[in-house]
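Notes to self, Battenin:
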Amino acid sequence: MEQAASVNVDPAQRADSDGSCSKWRDWTGFWLLGLCNNFAYVVMLSAAHDILKQQESANATSATPAPLTVDVQAGNSSSSPYDCNPVSTAAVLLADILPTLVIKLAAPCVIHKLPYGFRVLFCALMAATSFLLVSFSSAMWMSILGVVFASVSAGLGELSFLSLTVYFSRDVLGAWGSGTGGAGVAGAFLYSGLTQVGLSPQVTLQIMLVVPVALLISYFFLLAPPPTLPQWREKQYAAVVSEERQQLMDDSEEEEQGESTPGTRSSGPLTPKEKLHVIRGLMRFVFPLALVYFAEYFINQGLMELLYFPNVFLSHAEQYRWYQTLYQVGVLVSRSSLCCIKIRKLWALSLLQVVNVLLLLLAVRFHFLPNPWAVFAIILYEGLLGGAAYVNTFYFISKESEDRHREFAMAAASVGDSLGIALAGLAAFPVHRYFCSL
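result:
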C-alpha cells in the first residue's frame, strides 16, 4: 500500500517540480554566463595600469630617456603634481571597446545566421586567447591585441546572450544583469587581491583561464534550452513563436500587470524597413544609456589614474586597482536590484552621472578631496548609477518590444553602452595629456 502511494505521483506536481528545476537552472545559467562573458573585459581594464607600466619598464631597459613619472611618495621634486603613465589607460579602454562597438553595430543585422552554439564556442576561444596573449606579452602590440580579443569575446557574447533571453522567462534578464555585475566584482577583486598577495600580473591572468571553461559549462550543461532555440542549425529569424515561448512571455506580463500582452505572431525575418522602425523606437533607450556610460568611463579611464594621493598606505597602482574594484561593487549591487526596484526615468540616471564627472574633474584640477576614501565613496555611487541604467534599460526594452521584434531589439540596443564607452576613451586622451603636462 505504501509502495503504491509512493509510485502514484500527481503528474501536475511532477510538472511543477520539473518547471521549478528548469527555472532554477536557467536563472543560474544566465547568471554564470553574465559573469564569464564580462570577466575578461573587466580584468583587462583592472590590469590597464599594470599593462602600461610593464611595457614602460620593458622599454626603459633598451633606452634611457628622461622619465615621465616621478616617485611622489619618495619625495622627488617635479613640476607636475600628477603621477602619469606616458600613455593614458584610455588606450587599453579603446582596445577593449572599439572591437565590441564594431560588432554591435554590424552583427544584429546578420548574427541570426550563426546558431548560438557556434557563437558561444567562439566567445570562449577569444577570451582564452586574450588571457594568454596579455600574460605572455613582450611588447605593447601584443598586450593591446590580447585586449582586442577580450573585447571581441565580450561584445559578441553580450549581444548574443541578450538576444538569447527572449527564448526564456523574462526573469533571466535579472540573472544576466546580476551576473555581469558579478563579473565586475569578481574580475576586479580577484585581480587586485591576487596581485596584492604577491602574484605577478602574468600568473594572475593565466589562473583566470578557468573562466572561458566555465562559460562553456554554463551554456551547454546548465541551461535548459527550449526546442525553438537555434543551437547548431540555422533557423529562420523570428519564426512563428511557439506556444511554450509565448506562454513564458505572457506569464511574466501577468505577474507584473495582471494581464497579458502577446506580441505579434507574424512569421518570417524582419525586413530592413521593420529593423529601421525598431531602431528608431530604441533611441529613447540608447541615448540615455550611451550618456551614462560615457560619463562613468570618462571617470574610470580618464580621471581615476589622476586621482592619486601620495601620503597613504596604498601605492598609486593599488589605489587604481581598488577604485576599479569599488566601482564594480556598485555595479553588482545595482544590476542585481531588478527584482526589488525598477527605474523608468533613465535620463535622471544619466544626469546624475554627469554631475559625478564634473565633480571629479574639478577634484583632479584643484585637489580639494582630502583622501582616497572620499574618492572611494564617489566611485561606489558611480557604479550604482551605471549598473541601474544598464539593467533597467534592457528590462524595459524587453517589456515594451513586440515579441516579433524583441530578439533584434535586445541585440541592437546593446550598442548604447559601447558607443558611450568608446567616446569616453577618445575624450580621455586629451584630458590625460593636459593634466600630465601641467
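- The chain has a mean pLDDT of 81.
- The longest helix spans residues 11-46.
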